[in-house]
Inverse folding.
């Protein structure tokens, strides 16, 4: 596969569940990002990793926990989520964090019941 | 405070009816301004990067331009397959990214 892939594409979970979102990039990039996209709102940057080091964490609740084991893989671990966390979660990558173009995956549509 | 505003929120065009989407921005130090296209249920698809006022870039029926305060995405003779949400974003000298809320474009056959 090429580009940025995300699994699962759809996820329904209860407020007490624990689940993980996975992102993989096949572009040889060094930076990876998690975004949250809610209806009628701008994309919200959640986390940024550069060369496997977290370089940005935009006041995201602790019920979201990122993990970047290598420059090609990024995870978002979810636990005790709230219904307002329901959204499209997008992963992106770029050559460097200072490099401009970001390439996005197809997203995971998350519904929290 | 750095911010970006897109207008209109929604736009309906007849096939072949050219128009422009607006992205107004306020930034202390611009590193780059980006345009993305997003289809329903999918991630944004990169279209253009503009770095300085006066710069223009084209791709098929799309042309992006940049001034010191705004960027335009001109759509010439649009087709129904151009229907999508178009997102504007920029990055500043502090390496922060700001996205607009997008313009939802519908092209009617």
């Amino acid at each position: 596969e090429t580009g940025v892939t995300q699994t699962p594409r759809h996820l329904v979970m209860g407020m007490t569940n624990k689940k993980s979102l996975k992102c993989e990039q096949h572009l040889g990039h060094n930076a990876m990002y998690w975004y949250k996209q809610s209806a009628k709102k701008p994309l919200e940057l959640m986390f940024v990793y550069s060369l496997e080091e977290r370089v940005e964490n935009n006041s995201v609740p602790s019920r979201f926990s990122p993990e970047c084991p290598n420059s090609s893989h990024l995870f978002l671990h979810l636990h005790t989520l709230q219904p307002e966390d329901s959204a499209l979660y997008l992963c992106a990558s770029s050559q460097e964090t200072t490099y401009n173009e970001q390439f996005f995956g197809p997203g995971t549509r998350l519904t929290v019941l | 405070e750095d911010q970006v505003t897109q207008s209109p929120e929604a736009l309906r065009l007849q096939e072949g009816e050219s128009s422009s989407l607006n992205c107004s921005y306020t930034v202390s130090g611009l590193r780059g301004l980006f345009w993305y296209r997003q289809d329903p249920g999918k991630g944004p698809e990169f279209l253009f990067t503009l770095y300085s006022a006066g710069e223009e870039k084209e791709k098929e029926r799309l042309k992006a331009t940049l001034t010191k305060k705004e960027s335009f995405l001109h759509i010439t003779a649009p087709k129904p397959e151009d229907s999508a949400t178009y997102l504007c974003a920029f990055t500043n000298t502090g390496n922060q990214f700001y996205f607009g809320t997008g313009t939802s474009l519908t092209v009617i056959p």
Observations:
- The interface with chain B takes residues 4, 6, 40-43, 45, 88, 90-92, 97-98, 100-107, 109 of chain A (CB under 8 Å).
- Chain A is about 0% helix and 55% strand.
- The two ends of chain A are 32 Å apart (CA to CA).
